[in-house]
Design brief:
single chain, globular, 27% strand, alpha/beta, 213 residues, six-stranded mixed sheet, Rossmann fold
Length: 213
């Protein structure tokens, strides 16, 4: 029996206020896939990721992520299995780096000792007690990668993950992508770096005029 796709979008449209951002979007993402998502600035790529992260409800069409209907309360039940790293680091500036991971571990229900292990894995073991708000952009991004290493995700959504990273951090990103896919999850990566994404993606899609091609 064929497993259901982890992402199923059928004729999906998204409106933000009075503006139609996405229209008639059809997309399926299977377990083990790495899908590159390209498009011009303002094409709706980040909106598409937020939709797949269950943070936005579709205005038209039908959508399911990890089996949950995007228009029903069941979408809240799968959020712990979805990881998203956006343009700007999504961590709490008033907490230390390790406190950010301890909070994420508690929400995800994973052992707290993984927090320190994950920080060490991304080269931040010696900076665990540094305030996130006083840390460099690169350190904040590495902390996000540590969070995703710490928590086993079924779906990983990345928005320009290679931006402004050094070589070691780029290797961390690509290792995280490979691990997620190898363990039966799926990854959707938004990027302007077509050459890099073409090397790691199973396939790529283009978003133009609010519709995928």
């Amino acid at each position: 029996m064929t497993e259901s796709p982890l992402v199923e979008l059928d004729g999906v449209g998204v409106r933000i206020g009075s503006t139609q951002i996405l229209r008639d979007v059809d997309l399926e993402v299977d377990a083990g896939e790495v899908v590159g998502l390209f498009g011009a600035n303002g094409a709706g790529k980040t909106t598409a990721l937020r939709l797949m992260a269950t943070l936005i409800r579709p205005a038209q069409g039908t959508g399911r992520v990890l089996g949950a209907d995007l228009t029903s309360p069941e979408r809240y039940d799968v959020r712990r299995r979805i990881g998203m790293i956006g343009h700007t680091p999504g961590i709490f500036p008033e907490l230390t780096l390790v406190e950010n991971l301890l909070y994420a571990a508690r929400v995800a229900g994973v052992p707290s000792e993984r927090a320190g292990e994950a920080l060490s894995a991304v080269g931040l073991g010696g900076a665990a007690d540094r305030l996130a708000g006083a840390s460099s952009h690169g350190m904040q991004r590495r902390t996000e990668f540590a969070r995703e290493l710490m928590i086993d995700r079924s779906l990983l959504l990345l928005d320009e993950p290679h931006s402004a990273l050094d070589r070691d951090a780029v290797d961390l990103v690509e290792g995280l992508i490979a691990r997620t896919a190898a363990e039966g999850g799926a990854v959707v990566v938004v990027s302007h770096d077509r050459d890099r994404i073409n090397k790691i993606a199973s396939r790529t899609v283009e978003l133009a005029g609010g519709t995928l091609s």
